[in-house]
Structure formats: C-alpha cells, structure tokens
Design brief:
- It is built from seven helices and 16 strands.
- The chain is of the alpha+beta class.
- It folds into two domains: 116 residues, 2,3-Dihydroxybiphenyl 1,2-Dioxygenase, domain 1 (Roll), CATH 3.10.180.10; 150 residues, Roll (2,3-Dihydroxybiphenyl 1,2-Dioxygenase, domain 1), CATH 3.10.180.
Length: 294
C-alpha cells in the first residue's frame, strides 16, 4: 500500500532533513530519487523548506539547520500523535528531554522535538492540514525508520511509555510494534495480513520501526534515529549516488528480504537505500552492525 492519506497515533508519519545548503540537498535528492521539490516558505523567509514529492504527493522535507542546532546534516523522524503537548508531558515522565517545545507550524500541524534518555532525537507531529508522507514503500520514498541504540531495555521502557510501542523479533529482525496497527492496515488493504503470514513473518503488520543495536566495533557512534528509503535497485542507487557526489559507507549487501546500502549524501547526512528482494527470505543477516552506521 504505497499511497497514504494519514496516520494513526504512534506511527512514524514524516521525515525531513536539515542541511547547511538545503538548495544543494534538494538538487541531489531530486536527481537520485526523481523527486520534484518546492520551497513552501514565504518569500520573505530567512531560509527555505522544500517539500519533496513523487507523483504530486509529499514524501519528505528538506530544510536548513535550525539556529543553535549541531552544525551537521541529518535526517529526522516524526511520529504521529494526537497531542504534541501531551506527548511532551509523557516524554518528561519517561526520563526524556524536550529540545523544542511544541509549536504550531502555520496550519500544517503542531511540532515537538524530544530526546530519549540515551540521547536519540525524535520529533512528533500533530497533524493539521499536513497529514504526513503521501507515498511510502516505493522507489524514492520512506521505507523504514530505525532506532540505533545500545540500550534496548531502556528504549523499550521509554518508547513504550510515550507511544505505546512494544518490541518483537521477526526472523532475526528486531522491531517496534504498535498493537492494533495491523488492524488499521488490514482495513485499508484487505488480505495484507494473510500476505504477510505467507511471507513467513506473521505479526509483521504491527511493525512501525526497526531496532538496530549499536555494537562495540562502532566506537562512540551516538544513539540516533535513521531513515531507510525504498529503491528499485540498491546497486544502481549506490552507483548513482556516487556519481552525484555522495559516499557509499556500506556497499550493497544482502539480508533477509532485502538488498541494502548505506550512503552519506554530499553534505554528510546518512541514509539507507533498501531494495525488496523476496528471494532473500532465508539469507542470514550479514551486516547488522553496518546498518547501524546510518
């Protein structure tokens, strides 16, 4: 189900990236993924914010680094919530921090930025006119959001308290699940649950994000959220990204159900490009630690 018209609370609904040069980032991703990008900020705005689209539907945002934020390019994950303000209260109670108090983004929605107890930054989105990504799981669109962490037990307590998430393992793939999410997807796409079971991962329809353990050989990599884009061909995407000035951190590798590669764009923001390869179903994961580098 590629097209979406909204998200239930507790589901990642949007991604955006902050760059020193957002105009250059928009050109890079447009050439890599075929996006069309429009600056939606008023003409007198100090900095641009591009909405990237596929077939006219929103898929991601590209903006400048906010004043006072670390001067590094990065991708951000937004989770849909009923109330950004109530979520802020939950974050504080669960041991997290509020980095940006919830505020209205014109009539688009209400945004809050938080940090979990381990330091990973997570954003929340209370939808107004902007409902989130309109296309997912097809070439050039969001495929997964991933928490890279050393403290899975601590993360389980925090994200369970804030979003109601639980954890599950699916053929070696650790993931966050949201009880009832599969029912929502099944109602919109009858037969999805049966299809998932036939693929050998029953219950995967409740998955909302991935858990990637940070291993000892990754040194001082901080806990963080990363994003995965769906691509038709991981090898071709890595080659094209390189031609556009990016750096391939982890060359394409095979893992259960996918072929993935980790890429740093020309300004240093990292992301994963993942090709769905159903014939890889029984392949043992080969690069779990490498994925965590994103």
């Amino acid at each position: 189900m590629a097209e979406r018209d909204g998200y239930i609370p507790g589901v990642p609904s949007w991604i955006d990236t902050q760059h020193p040069d957002p105009e250059a980032a928009a050109v890079f991703y447009a050439q890599l993924f075929g996006w069309t990008c429009e600056d939606v900020m008023p003409a007198d705005s100090d900095s641009p914010y591009f909405i990237a689209r596929i077939r006219g539907r929103d898929v991601a945002g590209i903006g400048a680094i906010p004043e006072g934020a670390p001067p590094m390019a990065m991708w951000n994950t937004y989770v849909a919530v009923e109330s950004a303000d109530e979520t802020a209260t939950k974050v504080q109670a669960a041991g997290g921090k509020t980095l940006v108090e919830p505020f209205d983004v014109m009539d688009a929605g209400r945004l809050g930025v938080f940090q979990d107890p381990e330091g990973a930054v997570i954003c929340v989105w209370q939808a107004g006119q902007h409902k989130g990504a309109g296309i997912v799981n097809e070439h050039g669109s969001l495929n997964f959001n991933n928490l890279n962490t050393r403290d899975i037990e601590g993360a389980r307590a925090f994200y369970g308290s804030v979003f109601g998430w639980r954890t599950g393992n699916f053929n070696g793939f650790d993931a966050w699940t949201l009880p009832g999410y599969g029912d929502h997807l099944e109602a919109a796409n009858p037969g999805l649950r049966q299809g998932v079971a036939e693929m050998g991962v029953p219950g995967f329809e409740d998955v909302v994000a991935a858990i990637v353990p940070i291993t000892a050989d990754q040194g001082d990599v901080p806990a963080h959220w990363s994003v995965t884009f769906a691509v038709d061909d991981a090898v071709a995407s890595a080659e094209k990204a390189t031609e556009l000035g990016a750096r391939v951190i982890v060359p394409p590798f095979d893992a259960p159900y996918v072929r993935s590669t980790v890429i740093a764009d020309p300004q240093g923001a990292t992301f994963i490009a993942s090709q769905f390869v159903p014939e890889n179903r029984d392949i043992a994961a080969q690069a779990d630690a490498s994925v965590g580098a994103a």
